[in-house]
Amino acid sequence: MRFVFYSQQKRSICKLLLVFYLQKLNTFYQTNLELMNPDTNFSIRSFLGGYDKNFTYLIRCSHKGTNILIDAACPITQILPFISTPPIAVFITHTHSDHISYLDEYSTIFPNMIIFGYPDSTSISKIKNFRSIKHKENIKLDNLLFTAFHTPGHYFDSICYLLKPALFTGDTLFVGRTGRVKDKKSNIKDLYNSIYNKLLVLSNDLRIYPGHDYGKQPNIKIKNNIAISPLLRARNLQEFIDIMEEYELNRILNNQ
Ligand SMILES: [Fe+2]
Questions:
Q1: pTM of the entire predicted model
Q2: How close is the Cα of 185 to the center of ligand 1, in Å?
Q3: How far is the CA of 65 from the centre of ligand 1 (A)?
Q4: pLDDT per residue over 130-141, tens digit each?
Q5: CB neighbours of 39 closer than 8 A, spacing ≥ 6?
Q6: Which of 104, 102, 100 is nearest to 118 (CA)?
Q7: Residue spans per domain, the chain
Q8: CATH annotation of 39-253
């Protein structure tokens, strides 16, 4: 009897220490909660960290408390203090390694979590619970309706996820500029087409949530992003290519 009591006590102490440790970790890492306007039925919490000012987003359905993640770029220890039920899904914006760094960790801790991504993303398509999604496919998870937009250019398997009025843009679109085209599997014509014919034709009132914190603010409405981004004001493909070349040249000149 005494043994049972002590082992229960030990477990409680361990739990308390774990919570304390996670809270300490959380004060080290940055996180930010955005409550959406009253018309929406979800909140977004952003976690900043990972390889290079990466974001992982936690979406929480206000009705059922369902948790959904965008990208696996930050350690699970950052996220655990903010969830009481396992996330039911993670949407992968593309498979550059910094966006899937912790996917194995997430899958191990949440074995039933569905992983959504592009069909030809071989680095994740073999993982148990992987589910491929097509361009313009709708996915309803509890009360939340996501629409996927295949937006190649920065990388061949880039997908943006629309959850009105939020648009999760990965490395296709940042605050202040588009993604870059430095990878062997990048293509500037595809990027132009993705940006101008798939994203900028959506409502300008959508707010983008990018894959990295590269701008002057973490997220922005599309109309305000156009106002501050020359790359979003090109009149045609050639002008877009010219502005991108100028941007890359300035990076070299500024040692970025
Ligand atoms: Fe990337």
A1: 0.88
A2: 11
A3: 30
A4: 999 999 999 999
A5: none
A6: 100
A7: 39-253
A8: 3.60.15.10
